Amino acid sequence: PTDAVGYGQKTTALLALKRPLEALAAAELGHELNPNDPMSYGHLSAALLALKRPLEALEAAEKAIQLEPFSLVNHSRRFTALLRLERFSEALAVAEEMIKLNPTDPVNYGHLSAALLALERFSEALAAAKEASRLNPTDPISYGHQFNALLALGRLPEALEAAEKHIELDPTDAIGYGQK
Length: 180
Fold this sequence. Notes:
Elements: H1 4-16, H2 20-33, H3 38-50, H4 54-67, H5 72-84, H6 88-101, H7 106-118, H8 122-135, H9 140-152, H10 156-169, H11 174-179
């Protein structure tokens, strides 16, 4: 009961099992054991996001970033919290910062696309989604981002193609079928 790492692992496992209340309890115990560890703040942020408590998740992610400024995982949690809080301009700034930290990570361009879409900058959102696909052509999520931007632009035949590519790459993902 004195190993903060074990509580972090337990938090991750409980989140994967869709048990966010228990995950938060484990994250809190781990954080009590090591309150200056950026990972403990990261685990708190992840559990709070799962519980749909974005303001608290944002605070935890920001503390994690203060302690470990180059952690893309914590920047991603901050991005997600800001998006859920509808603070889209701030989310865009985080996505841009993530790209500066790692310009070859397609996830960062997916975040950029989502923020631009929320700001109704649809052409730019499409360009970011296409960059994510270029960096990882087998990532179905990037085609989901393309679908959203194409739909918003009214380019329906291309949106259908993006949805079909999403399904082709991950036939078990219900989101692709919903897009189609």
